[in-house]
Design goal:
alpha+beta; five-stranded mixed beta sheet; two-stranded antiparallel ribbon; 7 strands; elongated; binds FE2/S2 (inorganic) cluster
Length: 249
Amino acid sequence: MKLQLEIWRQAGPNSEGHFESVTIDDAVAEMSILELLDHVNAKYVEARKEPFAFASDCREGICGTCGLNVNGRPHGPGKNTPACQQRLHLFNDGDTLKIEPMRSAAYPVIRDMVVDRSALDRVMEKGGFVSVPAGTAPDADTLHVNHQTAELALDHAACIGCGACVAACPNGASHLFTGAKLVHLSLLPLGKEERGRRATSMVDEAETNFGPCSLFGECADVCPAGIPLTAVAAINKERARAAFRGKNN
Ligand code: FES
């Protein structure tokens, strides 16, 4: 399979970036986009050229580390699939692939296709703890959670934090990510502790670094975990709940 690649090259956060053209004529349809980049890098190393930097970890669609734009779309053309799981059979022989970092004001480029997504971690830092003594962990079977609630919480806990939702959003909003975390944390018994405080801090942090949501829906279209667009409603719902019931409820 012959592919024409335009791959982003940027030496550092303050350097000018540009696309570098690479022609590959021995790609195979079973390769993932990341494996295609490995293949390019192997050729570059052999030719004593600087390989391209890109992020990956599990390569199984679990960790959310792989983040690229392929032909302008976060992760690539496949719907709800992370870059590590998108295969070249999605393309035709002779196609051009434009591979670049996920683009958002909140994601500064570190090098080539590696971006700093720590703004998402800061949203989680604001909500991922309780400040009251919670005692030892209770027996699991003393905490009853009905099946429907458990399923809903787990569906939203499936968010892998890749940040594709932000890169796909014309406003650079993180409402799908933040909403998914708010839904999953607020539905389970231990997450009810300081629910209002958590929601307020997480939403405030999200609004500091990311844009507003206009319900375009591009975020849900690219989300590898299939988080539904309804998750964004949790932002206003949890904030209004905290305003009426107080931050510790
Ligand atoms: S590398 Fe872990 S989700 Fe893609």
